[in-house]
Amino acid sequence: SQTIHQWPATLVQPVGSPLSLECTVEGTSNPNLYWYRQAAGRGLQLLFYSVGIGQISSEVPQNLSASRPQDRQFILSSKKLLLSDSGFYLCAWTVNADTEAFFGQGTRLTVV
Amino acid sequence: DQQVKQNSPSLSVQEGRISILNCDYTNSMFDYFLWYKKYPAEGPTFLISISSIKDKNEDGRFTVFLNKSAKHLSLHIVPSQPGDSAVYFCAAKYSGNTGKLIFGQGTTLQVKP
Questions:
Q1: Which of A81, B11, B26, B41 is the one with CA 20 to 30 A from A1?
Q2: Can you list the residues of chain B whose pLDDT is less than 50?
Q3: Do A108 and B101 touch (CB under 8 A)?
Q4: To the nearest whole percent, how much of chain B has pLDDT over 70?
């Protein structure tokens, strides 16, 4: 069966520090991968998606970047965190564009 | 521009009664709709979906209704149970768009024993 792993679960980082969140999917190949963010009291906003290795599309301009170095690995990064980067970050995957997405457990990021 | 809207931030229902969560959308290109359930500090869990070629889909206690002319969908939970208390997100997507989901703001459902 397919599983998705996302870590860390919680993270407190100072302003200006770098960020690296990792997500891996098991039990499938060539998944579509996504990074979403849920800000406090808000819905889920799509940040990045990838349909293949090295292919990254950004949905909103921001202080973050994403990379997909391997088929089932998706990384969310920042060189210098801002206070506004605080939120709940979720990685998700789909078999293809026409199926439901499955989410990881999320990372609570607090920038102080 | 909020393409998917859940206008009710919260809903409180008595155990055993019906819960009805509503969702409106503006983009007529959406052809697939989903409902997710989310507990605090966890990722959303897929509940049920419906294709735009249907107007109803049922899975156990959960039924989703789609009214394309009104650009409206709803999730019915019957009977409601205290374990159903969570945040429910409506999401939509359209074919050929890499599977990207557009989410509503969510509705917090509280089912009282």
A1: B41
A2: none
A3: no
A4: 98
